[in-house]
Give the backbone structure.
Amino acid sequence: MSVANDVIAIARDEIGYQEGWEDGHWNNIQRYAPAVEGLEWAQGEPWCHTFVSWCFQEAGAADLAPVTASCAEGVEWFRDRGRYTDYPVIGGVVYFGPGGGTHTGIVVSYTDAEITTVEGNTNSNGSAEGDGVYLKTRLRHSSYIHGYGIPDFPEGVVLADPAWRGQKGVTFFGHEASTDDIPGGDDQPGRDHDRGTGHEPFPGERWFRDAPDSPIITAMGRRLVEEGCSAYREGPGPQWTSADRESFRKWQRKIGDAPHECDGWPGPLQWAALKVPRTTDAS
């Protein structure tokens, strides 16, 4: 079995575990902090990243992820190594909230629309008070997701970041992947499973702000209408207008972006979720 599979299997085995209960509240007392060398002090503190560190330690891979109780430090650890991305990674570490400092978990699968994770110090009701280890499903393109750490698994990595395509040890699945796609042995060659989607690549954030006149805008608008996000009185047409921006704002709300992120300006992840057909195919 691969190291990524080991990490995920260990995390899955903990689903259902709950921290201590005292005086009518969950108290952050759990078994992970005392078991991770250097994190004994974190007993009684929020423990989502402590849980991630424990899972990697138990898989014999403590050097592949940061040993820390701080999500912000975890983000910096991966960034310092050039292994941080906006795209999901099987067995990777997902970070949530501003700067990635709010919460974390381990990715077990993803689709175009969602990621599935195992997370510690969370719950099933969405409240701020975590109580245990849960299997969670979250919107892949939500602005709550800050990014993903890419562990340097010896068997290679499975991820959706197109910038990593073609690299040795990288298996690229742009749209969906799970543990079934993890390579089995050490030092695997890169594999590319993008069969072509017929979707328009993201033109860039600045492109929209320059008020383009392009068939791409028409194709985008038609997809927004199909998704029930139309603010158009006429069209859509090729010229970017305030109606396009308001329609895209509705799309941002539909996919679960935070209110302050719903500004109507397309970003790469929101664009990918919309699946705008290539203009040569749009009619």
Observations:
- The first strand starts at residue 21 and ends at 22.
- The chain is about 25% helix and 20% strand.
- Residues 17 and 132 are 5 Å apart (CA to CA).
- The radius of gyration is 21 Å.
